[in-house]
From TrEMBL, chains A, B:
Region of interest (Disordered), residue spans: 1-29
Residues that span the membrane, as ranges: none
Descriptive protein name: Polyphosphate kinase 2 family protein
A biological process term (GO) from this entry: polyphosphate metabolic process
Length: 303, 303
């Protein structure tokens, strides 16, 4: 039994694993923003499907196929935490209204066991939150050891909407980029794999999605006057995103730009990014810290 | 459009709805513990499948069929909360080791959108938790308006393991039943539908499940010395459960006894109980609080 521990539970063998690594490494590399480069979001096509040439139907099938691997890796991560492994994953979703942050939570986070998944949506800060540093509410919502945390919006709002709507002095905003980098570095030190995804949609696609919401009374609750106002500020938001992505893409917490005009591609890409990062962590089931044979005997007697 | 609001999104019509109510009401009635009766858990068959005569294969299909309805009702509940509806659901899972609390979270809670689902597993209280009343950590983990909360163990541990292991004076335990009843009454007053499920497994079935865990190294992390000790205290735990169920089954927060030797039945039953309770809440999408035609015009102009 001891010898089998290393390969238990259907881990792929060396060759398969190597193939898999090669294939998935491609997407991380493709979508990862180079550190410190100047960014022009207009040069990214929101309808593009990097590393996927097989169209929507095959894409949806590939997403369904991911479920088992994601759930298996999550269980290993969780199991490892019961033996003291502090590692966890934090997926941060940012993007303009209708870019699909909520849809990603539903369709991608929905593939995990909810017991080990901590989802948090950040809205405009409450009165109490505003009494603290902008990272205060973020720290309180972090995943614990073994968990997958998912943020729908995040501390980046404090350099995005805060910049566009001038909710803080320019000097303070400038300070925040550095504070965010230090914060994320400290998370990485503490075993948190920080996976930041910018869901990149086009101005046209947002219009189509907002119109679709208006045309369906069951979606009206998702709509607010702010959505129209923010759309009018599209160029300012784009600029704010470019600055945030530039300044806060660091070696240990890089940004990934995910083309998001196609929902199936967005889900496939984020699922794949999660899969790659979890595979890189390679969490292992802890070995028994008790005498299995002895316990077996005790149980067989307890009829 | 206004007229359609009441029936939007494929709600069943009057006749279908009536049929559905009749059918589902049956399970709530069947599994609900009568208020204040003496309880002999030995008289409940853990392999029974109340209200389901069609076997496992059809049971699994029925669970898969539930997903859409559960997700739809959850979205309505969430949407209603954005317009001030305070209602939410709290599913409390209790049962002996291996009774399937974790499995229920995975398979039943897994059918909800994780964004509106707050899962919390309660373990032995931490040092900090022990400095407060036993309800302190419970209050902090309650679902917010529009959410589905799920507790894997709960404040009932403080009258179960606390009673069996004598972690508190007898007098204090006695006081706690009353405090729990007042607490749950106040939750109901505050819009919380409290759904308490006792997962009822047999002594034999627990032995089989513990042996299966021992035989699979990937499950060893779920095992602890306490499991064997607790099994030796089976009669004491059963008695503690009987007392807790008797004293804390109230009209506004009744206990449901769910036969749990068959995992598929357990999942079907708890999914069905959730469905019934959500249907009874009948949450509605809020109507638009803005001028739809006006917004449509603005959007059409923003090309």
């Amino acid at each position: 039994m001891g010898e089998k521990d290393g390969t238990q539970g259907g881990r792929p063998d060396g060759h398969e694993r190597h193939e898999k690594d090669k294939e998935s490494a491609r997407l991380s590399t493709l979508l990862r923003l180079p550190d410190g480069d100047d960014i022009d979001l207009a040069s990214y096509d929101a309808r593009d499907t990097p590393a996927w040439q097989d169209g929507k139907t095959a894409g949806l099938a590939a997403i369904a196929d991911m479920r088992e691997d994601l759930a298996d890796l999550q269980e290993r991560l969780w199991a490892a935490s019961t033996a003291g492994d502090r590692r966890r994953v934090l997926l941060i979703l940012q993007g303009m209204d209708t870019s699909g942050k909520g849809g990603t939570v539903k369709h991608v986070a929905g593939m995990f066991n909810p017991a080990g998944c901590r989802v948090r949506a950040f809205k405009a800060p409450t009165h109490e939150e505003n009494k603290h540093s902008f990272l205060w509410r973020i720290r309180r919502a972090l995943p614990e050891a073994g968990e997958i945390g998912i943020f729908d919006r995040s501390h980046y709002e404090d350099v995005l909407v805060a910049r566009v709507r001038e909710l803080a002095p320019h000097r303070e905003i400038t300070r925040r980029y550095r504070e965010i980098n230090r914060f994320e570095e400290s998370l990485a030190d503490d075993g948190v794999t920080v996976l930041k995804c910018f869901l990149h949609i086009s101005y046209d696609q947002q219009r189509r999605r907002l119109l679709r919401r208006l045309d369906n009374p069951a979606k009206h609750w998702k709509f607010s006057a702010g959505d129209i106002e923010d759309r009018a500020l599209w160029p300012e938001y784009r600029k704010a995103y470019e600055i945030a992505l530039e300044r806060c893409s660091t070696p240990r917490a890089p940004w990934f730009v995910v083309p998001a005009d196609r929902k199936w591609y967005r889900n496939w890409a984020i699922g794949t990014l999660l899969l790659e990062h979890l595979e890189a962590l390679d969490p292992r089931y802890p070995k028994a810290d008790f005498d299995v044979t002895e316990y077996r005997k005790l149980l067989l007697k307890s009829v």
